[in-house]
Amino acid sequence: MKLGIFVIVSIVWLCNCHGVLVRFSNSVCTTLEGYDGICLRRQQCEDANGISSGTCASDLGRCCLFQRSCGQSSSQNNTYFFNSKYPNTVSTGLQCTFTIIPCNSNICQIRLDFLNLILSQPDGNGNCIFDSLVITGSASGNVPVLCGENSGQHMYLMVDRTNPITITITTSVAASLERSWNIKVTQIACDCPTLAPNGCLQYYYSQSGNVRSFNYGTTINGNNLNFGNGSSVAGTRQISNENYGVCIGMVPGYCSIQWSQSDGETSSFSLSNDTAAASVLDGLPSNGLRGENCTTDYVVIPNPYFVNGTAVNADRFCGNQFPTVVTSSKPFVLRVVTNDNELGDAANRGFSLDYTQQACSNLGFMLYNMS
Ligand SMILES: *[C@@H]1O[C@H](CO)[C@@H](O)[C@H](O)[C@H]1NC(C)=O
Ligand SMILES: *[C@@H]1O[C@H](CO)[C@@H](O)[C@H](O)[C@H]1NC(C)=O
Ligand SMILES: *[C@@H]1O[C@H](CO)[C@@H](O)[C@H](O)[C@H]1NC(C)=O
Ligand SMILES: *[C@@H]1O[C@H](CO)[C@@H](O)[C@H](O)[C@H]1NC(C)=O
Ligand SMILES: *[C@@H]1O[C@H](CO)[C@@H](O)[C@H](O)[C@H]1NC(C)=O
């Protein structure tokens, strides 16, 4: 019976970093702090500079927690990179680098979970000129630079063989703020079922969920967009120069996907055009723009239909309002594009969109989608 259980555990963790022969499986365990650790022998954990936090494998192993801070590196799966003394905050100017080393040559992707990521807001044009999080060394090419509030966001990075990936967080004394970060780093083996489709910066695989732009928020950026003539308007929360894909893993039996603006949040879609007067009151001018009228900052949803079955006949959406649309174009991808300035786009907040995959038996939709 015991042997049977052991075999099952080993199969579940096929994509395990620790191929070493031990009497128990080096599977993922939960530490006393509630983090993901790896079940190792106590000595193994110590040798790898981990912290033993609770037991695992029927008390044979220790749940080993890997935490690293500025200037350090890690080749351990499920390492947490945080500012020193986290959850204490950082108010000084610093440059902090952390290096992720693939734990073996069979790692294809790294998933970053920004459990906590609070940096200063971008300037009025959406450029991260004060604080920034910059990623280098990823085989995904250019990864958007981040700043502002990104707790709860995630990213997938492709790995180029055993080349390390570096995260550099810079904080500037020019902006006064209590910053903090705690980033979970998951290494994903090339044969692991949890790999994202290649090229997707973000990947969601639930039947329904919520997708937000980086630094999305309902409040406005405190930094202004200054014109040369001495006047200024409220700046944007959107990060400039982005061009990435958000993939939604198709759940078997679900053939189309509906996208809608998140309810109950002021400005849950404001990608271009002035969102509020310079005096910055909450509220939306009631106009959504589409297709050829979206040329600066927009999202793309291929071949969409309104819920009444009429084709939208445009796939770019911008402005200050988003209509509920459905598409059966596969794979399910939402693309996000922003340019390098916010002229004419005062006080934009970004987007919060809800998606719901719709069952293939949704005949109503299939009928009008056959035309
Ligand atoms: C790393 O841990 C995650 C669980 O947090 C697991 O899904 C993944 O397979 C592990 N990766 C490797 C390479 O062992
Ligand atoms: C300053 O320039 C902006 C952008 O060109 C314009 O909208 C605004 O009216 C100008 N303000 C003044 C006082 O000239
Ligand atoms: C809205 O933005 C579009 C381009 O993004 C621009 O052509 C249009 O003039 C703007 N409209 C207003 C009212 O600002
Ligand atoms: C773009 O805006 C113009 C002017 O408001 C409008 O006539 C046109 O239908 C719009 N195009 C799309 C694709 O919505
Ligand atoms: C379907 O909904 C869209 C968006 O609300 C509207 O513009 C269009 O006229 C509607 N079509 C029909 C046939 O009711």
Automatic annotation (TrEMBL):
Residues 70-188, 200-358 form the CUB domain. Residues 1-19 form the signal peptide. It comes from the Eukaryota. Pfam families: CUB_animal (PF26080). It comes from Acanthoscelides obtectus (Bean weevil). This is CUB domain-containing protein. The keyword Secreted does not apply. InterPro entries: CUB_dom, CUB_metazoa, Sperma_CUB_dom_sf. Keywords: Disulfide bond, Signal.
